[in-house]
Amino acid sequence: MLRRALDLAARGVGLVSPGPLVGTVLVDTNNNVVGEGFYLYDLIRHAETVALEQAGERARGATAYVSLEPHAHHGRTPPCTEALIKAGIRRVVASIEDPNPKVSGRGFAQLRDAGLEVCIGLLSVEATRMNEAYIHFMRTGRPFVHLKMAVSLDGKIATRTGDSRWITGEDARKRAHELRHQYDAVMVGCGTVRSDNPLLTDRSDKKRRRPLVRVVLDRCLHISTDSQLARSTTEAPVILFTKPDVDASTMSTLAAQNVELVKENYDLVSVLEELGRRSIQSVLVEGGATLAGLLMDADLVNKVTFFIAPKIIGGTAAKSAVGGEGTGTLADAWELEDVSVTQHGRDTEVTGYPRRNRLR
């Protein structure tokens, strides 16, 4: 039943941020499912409330299986704990505590104080992974950073002439758009904008609550006012981080195109903190090598996905996937944990979590 609750929660991908993914299943004393629900931000009804409305009087004496701790505070909606208690639920089985300081532990405490049996911890690993971005955001105030790269078998992201389209095949590129759908923002450096002129929109054909924010780090304002990003701000917003003393004429033109310019002498932590203040809880980083290296060197990457094509590009002048300073010894290399390997056509997806930044 709790696996079913997690499956329901997953239906909210792209539709709940900056909230969490939550699913609820209500089961009566005869082990019959009497209500189900999942959270969608814009409906302003929580998963528990939806399931209780569906169950009606059949909720009395039932068990509620919930993927995340019910909240006990008045926010956009009344407390879910009060609704569960009022409906006569006798037992709540939940995977994990909600790290939101307004919720954390209070929901479980209120349920216990009302005499309900509360069980916590079942499928906690799966539930944590599902809400990894939300959990990281609540704990740090910064977005969860997922580095995604498409590379050849020998680790190159372009040929010596700069040709990079396309290293991977159509199936892997479709999967990359599914990843974009799961995130609030996609981030690139100015080198990627200059060399690839990307659009960076979510073309997964799936519904999302907020448009995908396109973030560009461009200290020297090298972005062209004719770039696809600058010309498509009506389709999705663009935030460009640059220095205060860049060319005023270019800034004026970009501002007229509705590119939002953030001008400050910043570091990467400051960039992420600024995005966090905008309630962006997750960022998919799509390149290039310089930005990837800077983020890895700063230990700011929470998750890594490499799409590996069965191609060998070769050449010392061909750009490798991750730049920056890197590690001095193999013992200091970033090892991935909880690694999954998936095939997409002829290409292989390898996803894992850098050990030094593992979500806890």
Query: Using DSSP, what is the number of strands?
Result: 14
* Spatial extent as radius of gyration: 23 Å
End-to-end gap: 25 Å
Return the CATH class of the largest domain.
Answer: Alpha Beta
Low-confidence sequence ranges: none
> Which percent range fits the helix content?
25-40%
Shape: elongated
SSE string, helices as H and strands as E = HEEHEHEHEHHEHEHEEHEHEHEEE
Overall average pLDDT? 92
Largest sheet: 9 strands, mixed
Report the CATH superfamily of the largest domain: Dihydrofolate Reductase, subunit A
Percent of sequence in beta strands: 15-25%
Instruction: Specify the number of helices.
Output: 11
Q: Structural class of the helix and strand makeup? A: alpha/beta
What is the count of structural domains? 2
CATH architecture of the largest domain: 3-Layer(aba) Sandwich
- Arrangement of strands in the largest sheet: 10-9-8-7-11-6-12-14-13
- The CATH topology of the largest domain turns out to be Dihydrofolate Reductase, subunit A
